[in-house]
Amino acid sequence: MGNALFIVWRESVEAILIISILLAWIRDRDDARIGVHHLWAGVGGGLALAGFLALAMLGVHGWLAADALDLFQTAIVFAAAGLITHMVLWMRSHGRHMKRELEAGLTRAAQTAGGTSVAMLAAIAVGREGAETVLFLYGLAMEQSGETLARLFAGAGIGFALALATAWVILSGARWLPGRLFFRASEIVLLLLAAALLVSGVERLIDMEWLPPLIEPVWDSSALLEDGSTAGGIAAAFAGYRAQPSLMVLIAWLGYWGVVALLGRLQRRTAA
Q: What is the pTM of this model?
């Protein structure tokens, strides 16, 4: 429930901020060719795009046989982990200039095709956030069922409600929650979630005998923090913690953080 809440919260805040930037630009421009209805048409198109992706995934889920379904679900887990990491690195690189880049794109679109292009830009921006949310939630939901699955969707609903409140606080300029602080803190949690998804994917490949566990377990910390406990379950869901990890899982987890650190360093060098 907690990870679904966080993902929907973070992605919804991004989408709401993008819509707010577009709305402010349209009102400031005061161009008769471009109205707010173009923006809402684009938002509707973006949501429809995300809905189509969700239906497509459910369709594939029901169509595939057991082995192929396991492979498909494992691929989705890795795709979600990679997408989260890419999103965090992209936001670090473009987040500060996102408002300026969006407005520049809108200006170019308005000059060529007026409101239609603005609607398309809004649809792409909102659809991207919606598609990411669908992919993340699918990666989490396919390992849940029954009451646990219901709690996951409840968490997603709470996350959206919190996003509305958070976006309002950021947009109203509250000093105790600056936008930069919000995105920096959420980036860390997102990377931890990506590492947890990666661990889940590697364990799936081990279960399917596509990867060897090498040594299992490398250690046993069950006495300190059991996977099945409440605290251990939270640590497993949010950071990929395992009380009895295999060496392959450990290599994947450490390798992930090594790659993230390297990409972050290269990004800082490029920006310098």
A: 0.74
